[in-house]
Specification:
Blueprint lengths: L3 E3 L2 H13 L4 E6 L5 H13 L2 E6 L19 H10 L4 E3 L3 H5 L24 H16 L3 E5 L3 H13 L5 E5 L19 H6 L2 H14 L5 H13 L4 E9 L13 E10 L2 E10 L3
Bound molecules: adenosine monophosphate (AMP).
């Protein structure tokens, strides 16, 4: 069955009020469209947990820097509606920019400290843009649950923190990263990669896996772990590392010593395409 597609918050809310009146639990999957198997996994999880699944598609201008890919970001609404239908989405909310940020927008959500870690310094204003649009979507849809991928681990942490700090009444459900057979995390931006860049792209995951295996083998010092990961990245001359860090999964601060479960997160450039990825690692003995 085709999902119902709404272009305005007013129309969507009118429909959702009737959905809620019938006692249905609503799950929200926020996306920027260009849907792929990663998004499908989020939808499937929502389908399992909830009575009605709403998927939002909005390329959020607030979260793109002035020199980033806002204008060339892939927009594939017809295909997105087809993938939504195949995966049992009930409601698609695809607002115009004017709908979300029509009047002069003066109110923003900032999750301090967390927004300044990892990707923060390289994408000023990005997480403020994410948190602001996600809070708007939560207020428009009023879901019981919302689904976020671990692929964007810092985003997941920031949204969870916003929900806790602002007493929002919903549950954030994390979903494991979906990968290509060669390990590359599935991403809408992978479509930008040339064949040569696509060939080099899995190296980012291999570097993270190398770091993870050292931790699982008992290495606790970040320096040799990061050195081993850097050596892998440097073997790929077209891949330019932005950062790789071993962080505390709760506050995203770099750890001095690996003494529990950590997140290893990295970002790198291939030509004009920026890729991010992360893995969990637990100390072995
Ligand atoms: P995006 O459309 O890229 O903003 O992503 C929308 C949601 O899908 C976010 O919660 C992402 O973390 C999640 N997502 C994107 N790619 C993947 C993936 N490969 N595996 C799991 N979740 C993903």
């Amino acid at each position: 069955v085709e999902p119902l597609v709404f272009r305005t918050a007013v129309d969507l809310r009118r429909h959702l009020d009737t959905v809620r009146q019938s006692g249905m639990r609503i799950g929200l999957v926020p996306t920027m469209g260009a849907l792929h198997r990663g998004h499908a996994r989020l939808i499937q999880q929502a389908r399992e947990d909830c009575d009605a699944v709403a998927l939002s598609i909005f390329v959020n201008p607030l979260q793109f820097g002035p020199n980033e890919d806002y204008t060339r970001y892939p927009r594939t609404l017809a295909g997105d509606i087809a993938l939504s239908a195949d995966n049992g989405v009930d409601i698609v909310f695809a607002p115009e920019k004017q709908q979300m940020f029509g009047q002069r927008h003066l109110t923003f959500v900032e999750v301090n400290e967390l927004q300044d870690r990892l990707c923060g310094p390289f994408r000023p204003g990005h997480f403020r843009g994410v948190a602001t649009v996600v809070l708007k979507l939560f207020n428009i849809v009023e879901p019981q649950r919302a689904y976020f991928g671990e692929k964007d681990y810092q985003q997941l942490c920031i949204i969870r923190r916003m929900v806790a700090d602002l007493d929002l009444r919903l549950e954030i459900v994390p979903v494991a990263t979906v990968r290509e057979p060669d390990g590359l995390a599935v991403s809408s931006r992978n479509a930008y990669l040339s064949p040569e860049e696509r060939g080099a792209a899995p190296t980012l995951f291999h570097a993270l896996e190398t770091a993870r295996s050292l931790i699982e083998a008992g290495e606790t010092r970040p320096a040799p772990i990061l050195k081993a990961a850097d050596d892998i990245l440097e073997k790929q001359p077209i891949l330019r590392k932005e950062y790789i860090e071993i962080v505390d999964p709760a506050d995203l601060r770099p750890v001095d010593v690996v003494d529990c479960t950590v997140r290893i997160a990295a970002a790198a450039w291939l030509g004009k395409t920026r890729l991010i990825d992360n893995v969990e690692a637990a100390l072995g003995d």
